[in-house]
């Protein structure tokens, strides 16, 4: 990331190869939340992965911070058509949390403090494609952007990046989450403009 293409400067942003079709660039960081911002203290906070067999592994806040983390810089794309380049985060890779849990699940449902849900293929959460992030721009993630911690899955529309994430439930079945039930796409690839069911 952060690659500057020679000759790019000054071209219309519609030509920017880093901006998916139908998106425009924003410098701000808009807040998009369905309901009120849940206020979860790091004392109360807990994150868990639950397999299709009901096996549950959980982490307290100090336990999350003790895991290997990485800084990553990614472009994000909201289905409401804003994209933001080079956002800087710190977090723990999802595969670090899944570890050697015994699972043959193909899907995951993210459950959040506040009740939001979103579904993703488990494969899209692995191999350095997704993180439980707790820093943004070098600072603790603010509550409105999902703090204490949120899922970040930059290669899918940003509604898949569950804020205030509390649990990842691994399952064999691709059940729709909150926006997917309301007609948004099950997968949500911004490069294929998968905004709504049927796209
Ligand atoms: N828990 C929860 N996560 C959520 C949402 C939400 O309403 N609740 N909105 C989603 C949508 S539609 C987007 S675009 C991003 C917005 O993240 P931001 O508010 O940090 O920009 O969070 C996603 N994750
Ligand atoms: Mo969104």
TrEMBL record:
CDD domains assigned: arch_bact_SO_family_Moco
Region (Disordered): 1-21
Domain Oxidoreductase molybdopterin-binding: 35-179
InterPro entries assigned: OxRdtase_Mopterin-bd_dom, OxRdtase_Mopterin-bd_sf
Protein name, UniProt field: DMSO/TMAO reductase YedYZ molybdopterin-dependent catalytic subunit
């Amino acid at each position: 990331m952060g690659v500057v293409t020679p000759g790019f400067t000054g071209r219309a942003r519609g030509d920017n190869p880093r901006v998916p079709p139908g998106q425009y660039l924003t410098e701000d960081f808009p807040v998009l939340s369905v309901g009120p911002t849940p206020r979860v203290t790091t004392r109360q906070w807990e994150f868990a992965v639950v397999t299709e067999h009901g096996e549950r592994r959980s982490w307290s806040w100090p336990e999350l911070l003790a895991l290997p983390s990485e800084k990553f810089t990614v472009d994000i794309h909201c289905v409401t058509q804003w994209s933001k380049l080079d956002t800087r985060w710190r977090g723990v890779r999802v595969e670090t949390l899944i570890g050697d849990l015994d699972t043959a699940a193909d899907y995951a449902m993210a459950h959040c403090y506040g009740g939001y849900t979103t579904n993703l293929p488990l494969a899209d959460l692995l191999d350095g494609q997704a993180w439980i992030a707790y820093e943004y721009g070098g600072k603790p993630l603010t509550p409105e952007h999902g703090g204490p911690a949120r899922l970040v899955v930059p290669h899918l529309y940003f509604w898949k990046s569950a804020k205030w994430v509390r649990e990842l439930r691994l399952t064999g079945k691709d059940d729709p989450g909150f926006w997917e039930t309301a007609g948004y796409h099950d997968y949500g690839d911004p490069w294929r403009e998968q905004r709504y069911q049927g796209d």
